Write the structure tokens for this entry.
Amino acid sequence: MKKWKLATIAGTLLISFTLGSMAVLADTNVVTEQDGVKVFVGAVSQNHAFTRNSFIDGRTEFIMENGAENPQTQETALITFNQYMTTEAVDSFVDTLGNCEVKQIFLGIPNVDGRTIIGKAGTGTVSERVAENFDGMIEEEQDDDMKQELLNYKNNSQIFAITIETTNATIAEATQRDIVDFVDVYNYPNAEQTAQRKNVPISYVAVPEKPDNSN
């Protein structure tokens, strides 16, 4: 019961969930259903092996073209790192990007399934927002075992991805950083056209992949 509770903690700023059920929805990261079109941003592994590199190359080319043709247009991007990062290291990375807003922070304990998403609101740094969210949850939790579970996650989890809102030029620059594994944007023209043609809504869900291949 306690493990279930830890895996399903949800709030306006922090949502925990297991990815496993999402990773096998389709052979691509765009799923068209009767009630809408869903785009799983940043998802790579569910693509067939022979299409993964072409998918990544295609998305990177799209980002670079947008950076050159519409450099100041604002866009939301998911940045997946090629290793786990401390909050301080992510703060330094964000600082080098210049004017951008961090929208989501993805954390996980290395080599352990499960992940936590923190929506970064307000003016604090990534480090401050992560600490504030965990401290708030620990303070409100009445069960001692759960407090220890949350404290363990606070002390041992690290960041493997973030979503940011910034210019196309900055996003294009981020794709070139050594620490970055993959950058994807909340902009899929073909999916948008499909949704418009079918007169259904489109939704974007960030599904970054962890550097150790755990779920």
